[in-house]
Amino acid sequence: MAKHHAFRTDIKGLISLFSQLSGQGYSQIGPLVRDGAIMLGEIQSFDDLAQGYTDEQAQGHYRIKPIPNKGLFQYAVGPQSFKQYLHPPRRKLWSTNGTNQNFTVETGDKPQKMVFWGVRSCDLEAIKILDRVFLEGAFVNKWYQQAREQLLIIAASCPLPSANCFCTSTHTGPKPESGFDLGVHEISGNNGIYYLIETGSQKGEKLIKKLQLQWASAEELESMERMIEKAASSMKKRFEPTEAAELLKKTLEHKYWDEVGNRCLSCANCTMVCPTCFCTSTEDITDITGEHSERWLRWDSCFNGDFSYIQGGKVRGSTPARYRQWMTHKLSYWYHQFGTSGCVGCGRCVTWCPVGIDITEGLEELAR
Amino acid sequence: MAPESDYAKVTQQTVQPDVWLPVLYTVQERKAENRGIVTLKLAPSEAEMIESIEPGQFNMLYAFGIGEIPISISSLWNSQQQLIHTIQDVGTVSKAFCNLVVGDQVGVRGAFGTSWPLEEAKNKDIVILAGGVGIVPLRPLIERILHDRNDYGKLNVLYGARSSENIIFHQDIISWQADPTLNFQITVDHAYSNWRGNVGVVTRLIGNANFDPRNTAAFICGPEIMMNYAVHACLDVDIPEDRVYLSMERNMKCATGFCGHCQFGPYFVCKDGAVFAYPQVKSYLNIAEL
Ligand code: SF4
Ligand code: SF4
Ligand code: FES
């Protein structure tokens, strides 16, 4: 590999990075333990970050547990993704005051200046996909653009992928390759945990300079490579995204849709946890005087009943049709729309499906 | 120096206007077409206005405090400054629009979507098939063709309504019927005793149309089932499939490719449509609940 240098630090380097960023007015978002899961939230102090935990994931199953290793990144992704900060579950588009005869429109809130800590490679690639959706088409999502412009990304590689991870199949991990300001690798060495930090932008370089870290040694870089290879080879789920995209085009009337549709509860969990699902609805809320009204944008899901409603009924009234829409959009139509797959292999939809439906298994069924 | 990341690429983009913000318009005229269908003429309330709109395109119309719906442009006869929209009362928002009176204000975002491909229809015979309110997005197309009448061959307008009570655009119909350069045919599904015209599905009228199939473009809008039959009626008389165009309807919340509601196979109907050439949608039209 050509570009191969990184800085080395112990946890103190990360702590001073945290203080440096606090001084620059960033709202710092990162993984923390809440409700028995690794969630995302604002970190007020460095200690808020989840530390000394790993997770156990299976189809429809998730659990975290404390481990002796006091690392920061010894677990895979939890139910939430950074999507919720760039594309919030609810946000005010604008508000209006007046009457039917005469009203004025005022814009909603502006996004904050944020830093994301510990963005895993899959979620990093998911952000790049959202960039395509919201920035690179005929129209620009201005709120997203403003949030994105001010965003600082500290990515982290995954030492311990979960049993539902398949980023090696989607070519989105486990090592963050680009699109970050700083990339952190947590290595558990014989003498404790240390961190290798790569820079991915000029912003990142500036931050690192102030920390005055030493270069990583050749052996340390090698340990990092070994850790990543080990993580990659631990992933068992496998498929080829471009083949899946073609397969789905040919199987729109396969009997699998009825089978999976009978199990699926149409609960929309999979779309809520997916880091690339972007669908929304608008909502109008008017106060009791009728003179003040607000337009809100909120996440919606292709599994919801009214999602496809037009005069004359729902286009996709049945669950098999909705499941087919979700899976074919994600794995096939996405290429047509955005030039890439809509799946980054994070495994969340598999873990958080109450009945344990697994899209990688679905592909096997469809190929049969 | 570190390489420019994708992130840097993002930051270099110029700041865009907020696509969610509407432009304010005032209702200048209101005309009840029949029970439940109203045509509104809207004029910009202030200096800002929708830049231009083509036959087949639509705007997102916002009713104060109620919500927003996609509505196609229904006439371009007057001017580009005023917007003419015909709205059928089928839900909360459309009902609010039907109840508006002259002087009321509305919000408009647009123009969105693809337009009827008039360029490709030049020097060709034209067959227009409208089912029910499907006549609405087709009217500006008819107007445009009549305006540049010498650029096109024979013009056939075939219109099917549920019953005589559901017919709209009576004044246009009178002038179309009187126009020797236009073959206008109308039929109803259900006839009352006072109806003297054709009875039956609109696709049958194609037998009364006048065109050279090898040099014809067909434009279709109506309920999806009607469009399916209409496309096949066109293909049966040997109109080439890539000259058959139709306008699709799907749920729409944003019109900018952001909300996901309007998806139809690989397409976003709001930006890849609503007007499609038949070969684009051919393999998806017959799949139930797609
Ligand atoms: S489809 Fe499933 S595995 Fe793929 S990105 Fe979405 S949640 Fe993750
Ligand atoms: S696949 Fe699972 S998570 Fe998704 S809607 Fe169906 S039951 Fe819910
Ligand atoms: S209407 Fe929102 S994506 Fe088309």
CATH architecture classification of the largest domain in chain B: 3-Layer(aba) Sandwich
The CATH topology of the largest domain in chain B corresponds to: Rossmann fold
* Strand residue percentage of chain A: 25-35%
The most extensive interface between chains reads: A-B, 74 and 54 residues
- How much helical structure, as a percent, in the residues of chain B? 10-25%
Ligands bound to this protein structure = iron/sulfur cluster, FE2/S2 (inorganic) cluster
- CATH H-level superfamily title of the largest domain in chain B: Nucleotide-binding domain of ferredoxin-NADP reductase (FNR) module
Element-by-element helix/strand order of chain A? EHEEEEHEEEHHEEEHEHHHHEEEEHHH
Sheet/helix structural class of chain A: alpha+beta
Helical proportion of chain A, percent range:
25-40%
Distance between the termini of chain A: 40 Å
Averaged pLDDT of chain A, please? Answer: 96
Describe the structure.
The complex is a heterodimer of chains A (368) and B (290). Chain A has helices at 11-23, 83-86, 121-134, 142-149, 202-211, 218-233, 241-250, 256-263, 269-273, 319-338, 348-351, 359-367; strands at 7-9, 27-34, 37-42, 53-58, 61-66, 90-98, 103-107, 114-120, 152-156, 182-189, 192-199, 214-215, 280-286, 292-299, 309-310, 313-314. Chain A has 368 residues and is α+β, with helices and mostly antiparallel strands. Chain A has 2 domains: 3-233, no CATH class; 241-367, no CATH class. In chain A, a hairpin with a 2-residue loop joins strand 10 and strand 11. The longest helix of chain A is centred in the last third of the chain and has 20 residues, at 319-338. Chain A starts with 6 loop residues before the first strand and ends with a helix. Chain B is α/β, with parallel strands linked by helices and 290 residues long. In chain B, 22% of the residues lie in helices and 31% in strands. In chain B, the strands form 3 sheets. A 7-stranded mixed sheet of chain B has the order 10-9-8-7-11-12-15, sandwiched between helices. In chain B, strands 1-2-5-4-3-6 form a 6-stranded antiparallel β-barrel. Chain B is globular. Chain B starts with 5 loop residues before the first helix and ends in a 5-residue tail after the last helix. At the A-B interface, strand 6, strand 7, helix 3, helix 4 and helix 5 of A face helix 1 of B. One iron/sulfur cluster (SF4) binds at residues 273-276, 330, 343-349, 359 of chain A.
